[in-house]
Specification:
Blueprint: H1 4-14, E1 23-25, E2 34-39, H2 49-58, H3 62-67, E3 69-72, H4 76-87, E4 92-97, H5 102-110, E5 114-118, H6 122-136, E6 139-140, H7 147-163, E7 169-173, H8 178-190, E8 195-201, H9 206-213, H10 236-245, E9 248-252, H11 254-268, H12 274-284, E10 294-299, H13 306-319, E11 323-331, H14 336-346, E12 350-357, E13 367-375, H15 379-391, E14 395-397
Parallel strand pairs: 2-10, 3-4, 3-6, 4-5, 7-8, 7-10, 8-9
Antiparallel strand pairs: 1-2, 11-13, 11-14, 12-13
């Protein structure tokens, strides 16, 4: 049973193990609110997961420690278990989905764990881990549906109340629900008037659906850039705790998450993974009522794959009006490209790439397609460029 004493015991156990991550003010995330960021992306292993994993492993009996531990994860829990097991001289085996970012797989190996890649998503890795647990006698370290793990994550709630005693609302990412269960329990136990909001990806709304239907729902498919919260089924413990202590759960789109990742990089010089940025996306796009309130967004992790990061940045630039991709149908004659460049430059745009195509079968034989990527300031700037091009007689191709 989860108790406040257990959360405090977890905080004591973790005191010399983890970083007491900072809460930093972020005034531009939502100008109508007083927004702060709990920077768990700067935690050791790059994620909050080490809290719950370490506390759980610290509570194992000597017999359990001798047999070793097994876990399954999209990546961050894996690193937490690996670090905690190695620090306590315990063998660890981690089952990961084969689509987990390479950076997370390699980091898990670096922390000392053995790896078993499983075809599919988190839930498939879970099934495999259960098979190996029975076969080899390992102790399974659940990523979210375990009271000790939840207590470890709840230490974040204690820290937030210590760092922001007058906080009005806390916004927390949700995958399986371990993080928000611990935080909500701790905060509601000590400051019941503080709102706790959960955020899931539109492509993986398992807890969102479950609370709305008042029973645990299983998703057939999940698809999101927030791989760390791509969970098909909430846990029994986490569903119960969320039902009791969480005020509301909302969802955000992948485009909104991309915009949040970009905002964190530009405004706060923080790198967040998709799962870590969903709380910020909810604040940015007013998914919950935080106007005029002091709000803390938990940035739960920063382990984003660099190959994905470049695509996310490009998507974020497009979504926020910082970049324009446009195709023009031009008459194929001298001076056309110069005229387009003059219009764009005259309005303060910066052309960063050009593709010129004379052979598109969907245009007139005497025409060509000009495909441009333009660096812009905002959506109003884009509108002015588009309107000027149209006014000068250039045809925009969808």
């Amino acid at each position: 049973m989860l108790t406040l004493d257990k959360v405090y015991h977890a905080a004591y156990t973790l005191k010399n193990v983890i970083r007491d991550t900072a809460v930093i003010k972020s005034p531009d995330i939502n100008p109508e609110s007083d927004v702060y960021l709990k920077t768990e992306n700067l935690q050791i292993t790059g994620s909050f997961k080490v809290r719950g994993a370490y506390y759980k492993i610290s509570q194992l009996s000597s017999e359990e420690q001798a047999k070793g531990v097994i876990a399954c994860s999209a990546g961050n829990h894996a690193q937490g278990v690996a670090l905690a097991a190695t620090a306590n001289k315990i063998k660890s085996l981690i089952c990961l989905p084969d689509g987990a970012p390479i950076s997370k797989v390699e980091a898990t190996k670096k922390y000392g764990a053995d790896i078993c890649l499983v075809k599919g998503v988190y839930d498939d890795a879970y099934t495999k881990a259960m098979e190996l647990k029975e076969e080899m006698g390992y102790t399974f370290i659940h990523p979210f549906d375990d009271i000790d793990v939840i207590a470890g994550q709840g230490t974040i709630g204690l820290e937030i109340l210590d760092q922001l005693p007058d906080v009005d609302a806390v916004i927390v990412p949700i995958g399986g629900g371990g993080l928000i269960s611990g935080i909500a329990f701790a905060i509601k136990s000590l400051k019941p008037e503080c709102k706790v909001y959960g955020v899931q990806s539109e492509g993986a709304p398992s807890m969102y659906n479950s609370l709305r239907k008042e029973h645990i729902c299983n998703l057939k498919h999940v698809k999101t850039i927030a791989d760390g919260i791509a969970v098909k089924t909430p846990g029994d413990h986490t569903f119960e705790l969320c039902s009791k202590y969480v005020d509301e759960i909302v969802t955000v789109s992948d485009d909104e998450v991309a915009s949040a990742i970009l905002a964190l990089m530009e405004q706060q010089k923080l790198v967040a993974e998709g799962a870590g940025a969903v709380s910020v996306a909810a604040a940015m796009f007013n998914k919950v009522d935080i106007k005029g309130k002091k709000v803390c967004c938990v940035v739960s992790g920063g382990n984003i794959d660099v190959t994905i990061l470049s695509r996310v940045i490009s998507r974020g630039l497009l979504n926020t009006g910082r970049s324009l991709s446009i195709k023009l149908a031009l008459t194929d004659k001298p001076g056309q490209l110069e005229a387009v460049s003059r219009i764009v430059a005259g309005l303060g745009g910066n052309i960063v790439s050009i593709y010129h195509d004379r052979y598109d079968l969907n245009i007139d034989i005497v025409s060509c397609i000009l495909d441009l990527r333009i660096e812009t300031r905002d959506h109003e700037h884009i509108r002015s460029i588009v309107e000027k091009l149209k006014a000068e007689g250039f045809k925009i191709v969808d």
